[in-house]
Every structure is written in C-alpha cells, then in structure tokens.
Design goal:
5-stranded parallel β-sheet, 5 helices, single chain
Length: 156
Amino acid sequence: MLNASKPMKQKIVYTSGTFDLFHSNHLRMIKYARGLGDILIVGVSTDELVASYKSPPTIPFEERFQIVEALKLPDIVIPQHSLNHADLVKKLNIDAFVIGDDWTGKYDYLRELGVEVFYFPYGKGVSSTNIKEQISQNYKSLIRKSDEHGNPDIVK
C-alpha cells in the first residue's frame, strides 16, 4: 500500500514598511524575513496610510512598490492600506510577521491569532528619516555658503 502522506504546509511570512528612500536596513529586514519561511509576502504602505501617522513619503507609492517588487527576495508584493493586520493575517494564512523594532509591542496582538511576531533590530543611523535630515542639513549648508560668499572682483 502506498504511503499517501499529507504535503507539508508552507510557512508564510509577511513583512511590511514604507520603504521610502530604500536603504540597507530595509534590505536587511526583508532578507531576515525571507529566511524565516517558505513564502515571503511584502506589504508596501500606501502614501495615504503613511500620511496618517507621519510625514508623507518622499518617493511616491507606485515607485516604492516597483522597487520592492524588483527585488528577488519577495514572492509577492502587495499594497498595505492599514496598520491593523488582523484581517490580512486571516486572509493570507500568515504564520509569521516581521517589523522593525521601532514598532516593538504594537503587533503583539497578532500572537493571539497564532502568528509569530519578530521585531527586527533595525540598526542605528540608517533610516529614511535620518537620510532626509542629512539631505536637508547638507542643502542648508550649501545655501548658507552661497549666501555668505563675497562678491567677486570685477576686472575691467
């Protein structure tokens, strides 16, 4: 008699973010999530969602989505319209959720739905907010230098 064993369930991992000014910490978190399971779904927050809790992204949603979609790591990339992932977890049968540790504690409610929650150590220094601040400071410095220079001597 043949052994008709059940196929093993594949572990589905979900991670999400704004992914504005895509940088190395974004990539590290997605790589980490990829290593936790068999199928990786990455949610990219819409402009409207991001603007509901912080300043709007610099890069428009469609471009951020295309950047993440072009990576080899995700199996599926989807728009993220809400910070509440309870319905998404149920609809997509998500087994594990990965988010940056700047959100520590905010997604513990998913554990009640049987989801493993991982708060990825995001790392210091590299963030879209810090990159924007650095660009702003550099720009202000350039403006200051151009405003403070003396008039050139005009030779006739």
